[in-house]
Amino acid sequence: MKKQTELIKKELPKELEWIDKTSTVLDDIFKIPATNFRFGLDPVIGLLPIFGDFVGFAISASMVLAIVRHGVSLSVLIKILGNITFDYLVGLFPFLGDFLDVAYKSNRRNVDILKDYYTSGKHTESSKYVV
Q: Where do the structural domains in the chain lie, given as residue ranges?
């Protein structure tokens, strides 16, 4: 009998699919032709001093609220909040923060953390008590 390896597609629960789409818009929607380099609206919005970084933070915070309402472990929540906080604080530095924002892609990192969490079967704990 031939051994078949099944590729597990990492997906978010249906209620959280909008988070994946939003993070794509914020971090990966544009591609520079002839390269693999991608960036999104987050660093572009971040070019507006203080206000732009706050808008990006507010969008990320709305994603966190949805994640918490759906239920996620406290350790995952702390990782996600750490990514968002780092992204916001770095973004406060004009231009340097925007370049780092292009490279760091906190929203994409957070989606990857969530996908790993939900596909690993660890979705037993909940942080709903936080909100």
A: 19-29+40-130
Q: 109-128: per-residue pLDDT in tens?
A: 999 999 999 888 765 555 55
Mean pLDDT calculated for residue range 2-22:
69
Could you tell me the pTM of the whole model?
Answer: 0.80
What dihedral do alpha carbons 42, 46, 52, 58 form, nearest 10°?
40
Using CA atoms, how far apart are residues 103 and 123, in angstroms rounded to an integer?
A: 29
- Taking CA atoms, 17 is separated from 5, 6, 10, 70, 115, in Å, by 26, 23, 12, 12, 10
